[in-house]
Amino acid sequence: MRHPIFAVLCIAGATGVAGCEKLPFGKSSADETVERAFQGVNAVDGANLNDMMLQSADPDEAVRYFQRSVKQEPARLEFQRGLAKSLVRAGRVSEGAATWQEVTTHKDATDADRVQLADAQIRGGAWTEAQATLNAIPPTHETFERYRLEAMVADYNENWQKADSFYEIAVGLTTTPASVLNNWGFSKLTRGDHAAAERLFTDALRQDDTLFTAKNNLMLARAARGNYALPPIRMTQIERAELLHTLGLAAIKRGDVALGQGLLEDALESHPQHFEAAATALDALGGTAAR
């Protein structure tokens, strides 16, 4: 089976030799060639190409592809969904949320679509709207994504009991809970429950030891309890320097200035290249570590 992108190139090449005749309404032959190419692919291998555009294509390229597809077949729900996902992935969150809103009005829209709308609303900071969207979803729709978002909204509203309940449910509904454990740990950290936060960050790293955000948050939880030692977790040399930098700044914030300065010096020495952030922090303290 030919690769879908190769099929696009073949179709475009075959139609491109047709010439440069003028088209009505100012449309160029190049535009029509691209449209015919995508029409052909959509007819032959559309589902595979849609998935590929969502998973591996450049986000802006994916947006353009789904915009063309929606223009050609505006009633196709999978194209509308693809456009909404691509817009969010490309950082065009407000447009993505608006497109998800349109998707949810489709006669074939599902509760999963409404969850995606709530996700886009949260990304855009529309917490009240996201809560209303989630409230409209029946409780029988029990998915990881739904409860992950419910937990975030409860966090935002400082409803800690609900947040903990939703986080616990979400963790039980996925085989890859590292990111939600990290979010739960950060929730505990903001509440001042540093011991619980440390446990959750450690659990997150047990699930995924490449998750740098959890490593950095773990440093904050340990430093908040006056523990400035690096824990026995896997880290690269650059990560080691960055984590020492986090510990150093946290120590200074707690008033342990001498300890913090020493940690910043260790960070500067540990980094395989010049560590500008650590050097700047030391300069501000009047540090004399070798540059």
UniProtKB/TrEMBL annotation:
This chain belongs to the protein called Tetratricopeptide repeat protein
Species annotation? Roseivivax jejudonensis
